[in-house]
Amino acid sequence: MTTAERGSPDDQQTASRFFAEPMREYVLQCLGRPVSVLQAGCLAPLCELGIAELAQGGFEISVTAIDGDQPLARRVLLDAHGVYDDVITGDLRTVSIPQRAFDVVYCAALLERISHVELVLDRLISALKPGGLLFVRTADRYSATALLDRVLPGPARRAVWSRFRPGTPGPFPAVYEKTVSEQGIASYALMRGLVIAARGSELTRPDQPPGLSSSVRITCAAISRLSRGRYADSHDELLYVIRKPLDRFARVVLGRRGRSPETEARVGHAAGGAGHVAGLDPR
User: Fold this and answer.
1) Mean pLDDT, consecutive 10-residue segments, the chain of 283 residues?
2) Distance between CA 47 and CA 81 in Å, rounded?
3) Which residues contact 36 (CB under 8 A, 6 or more apart)?
4) Rounded distance, CA 41 to CA 81, Å?
5) Alpha carbons 212 and 46: distance in angstroms, whole number
6) In CATH, which of 3.40.50.1260, 3.30.1330.10, 3.30.365.10, 3.40.50.150 is domain 3-140+175-203+236-273?
């Protein structure tokens, strides 16, 4: 039994459609065979993929979770015992991951808290089938929230975490390598020949408890003003839908900040008349 089969319809009604729509399109092209998902990051909000809704429609979807072999990650995964079809833990740079085995890799709430981000992403990409999808949700290094997270003393970070996420083990390390940014992800995709099909951003700061939320909001606004906008307060997370192409001549789409995911979801033609950019081919 998969995670999808345990989700509730109410969860799906509130889930972001940013990932759920391309997930559904992909699954519909896989009629007649199961779809495999690799969830990278124990805190990833899996419900936003809309898997429960797909499972209710009769699609077979398996979910494997992977994270570092660290006490906090192990606690979170232990709390979710029985939810996943399989769990992989270990050094994300070297742990054994099946190659070209997954249709979708969903990486969320992970990149901002680890080192060697590009190496870890390389490992995750290698686990994708050609034509597969990489969903990325990550905190933005150059957001006011991320800067505040990095500079807060340990006791303050623990207090904020416990009030914003009661009952969830944490906080996790605040690493925020340069790759964990809009320019960093775009450069990584360009160098690896990946296709950015859609991009977006969200402000995910909790609004409860009100007092703490208001204090954080005011502080982040001040950071943005004092940094003259270098650390933005308009969002704190970046979202990407990235394709692993079948065609090595694929080209990355670099849209301007502020465009909608639909506008960003255009792909060009390969140089020199080599043909169209590789699209979804879940075979």
Assistant:
1) 39 64 95 95 94 93 96 91 90 95 98 98 97 98 98 97 95 97 97 96 94 97 97 97 80 47 36 36 45
2) 17
3) 61, 62, 64, 101, 102, 103, 104
4) 15
5) 27
6) 3.40.50.150
